[in-house]
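Reminder to self: tokens first, then the designed residues, so the page reads top to bottom the way the pipeline ran.
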């Protein structure tokens, strides 16, 4: 298996290929924030942040950070020409009205029905799920970018989520370092496998039964 950072790069690179020119995209904290680094040439997307910004630029260089310019994950960011700022209420109005084309989030668990758990582990103190609940309900498409298993080797793609849910039947696509899985009404469909990975290996790391796409292909990057 590739090291953790390489896994994250594999995932981010593959998700970037799902984005289209002109899309309005909301990226969750953590792994999804790597995605803009891997956008194909000629593709421009507009990044939206639920704390009230449209048009997020790349991370600033060391020493050039503006402490007043942050994203929803409290990371310092930059702006691109045409960036705009607005209240959090207006931002969630955009999200809830379906104006975000894609949201990419990490996950603790995704199940066979596309239910998502990505905000709470019982026994750990948290302030709440943040904007994730609105994003999975309001975005036109929800993509999960995550490592296939936990650090202990337990599947994160499960038959039924056991952790508190963020949304019910909201996930459209799952991208991991092992492959690409589509959520369909008939169950989970394995569409792509990473180089050197077999469908059997993906199934072994996945709790629910996977259907193999007739046109199964190598995972693109």
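Designed residues (221 positions):
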């Amino acid at each position: 298996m590739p090291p953790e950072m390489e896994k994250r790069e594999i995932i981010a690179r593959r998700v970037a290929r799902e984005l289209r020119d002109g899309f309005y995209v909301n990226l969750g904290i953590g792994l999804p924030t790597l995605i803009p680094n891997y956008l194909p040439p000629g593709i421009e997307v507009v990044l939206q942040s639920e704390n009230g910004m449209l048009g997020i630029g790349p991370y600033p260089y060391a020493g050039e950070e503006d402490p007043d310019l942050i994203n929803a994950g409290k990371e310092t960011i930059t702006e691109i020409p045409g960036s705009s700022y607005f209240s959090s209420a207006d931002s969630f109005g955009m999200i809830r009205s379906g104006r975000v084309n894609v949201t990419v989030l990490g996950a603790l668990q995704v199940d066979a029905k596309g239910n998502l758990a990505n905000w709470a582990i019982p026994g750990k103190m948290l302030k709440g799920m943040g904007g994730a609940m609105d994003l999975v309900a309001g975005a036109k498409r929800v993509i999960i970018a995550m490592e296939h298993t936990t650090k202990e080797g337990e599947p994160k793609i499960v038959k039924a989520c056991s952790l508190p849910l963020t949304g019910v039947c909201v996930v459209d696509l799952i991208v991991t370092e092992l492959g690409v899985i589509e959520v369909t009404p008939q169950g989970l469909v394995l569409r792509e496998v990473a180089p050197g990975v077999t469908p059997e290996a993906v199934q072994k790391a996945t709790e629910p039964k996977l259907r193999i796409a007739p046109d199964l292909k190598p995972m693109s990057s």
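Helices lie at 4-16, 88-96, 132-138, 199-204.
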